[in-house]
Amino acid sequence: MKDVPVFQVAETELSTGTSLVEASAGTGKTFTIAGLFLRLILEKNLSVREILVVTYTVAATEEDRSEEHTSELQSPCN
Questions:
Q1: pTM for the complete prediction?
Q2: CB neighbours of 9 closer than 8 A, spacing ≥ 6?
């Protein structure tokens, strides 16, 4: 089996437009999406209302909606 490089959230260039995160179960998609979401807010000065995140599994959707994730993404300035 070929070694696949690990996606580096912090080093990946942020682009404008649409991005697709696609991978098998257990590979860190939700972590990656959360990291990119946070970087768009902090580095590109986008508001939460300007970012659309769509997930296609019940487990990922439940995790994104959890209080733990929500509190992590809220700014202390709000």
A1: 0.60
A2: 31, 32, 35, 36, 39
The Cα–Cα gap between 64 and 14 comes to: 21
Give the whole-angstrom CA distance, residue 29 versus residue 60. 9
CA distance 50 to 47: 5
| Cα gap 65→77, rounded to integer Å | 21
| Distance separating alpha carbons of residues 60 and 66, to the nearest angstrom | 10
C-alpha span between 45 and 55 (Å, rounded): 23
For the segment 47-62, what is each residue's pLDDT rounded down to a tens digit? 999 998 887 777 767 7
* Alpha-carbon gap, residue 15 to 46, rounded angstroms: 12
Q: Which two three-digit tokens encode residue 17?
A: 């437009």
Joined together, the tokens standing for residue 40 give 């768009």
Torsion of CA 56, 74, 8, 30, to 10 degrees: -20
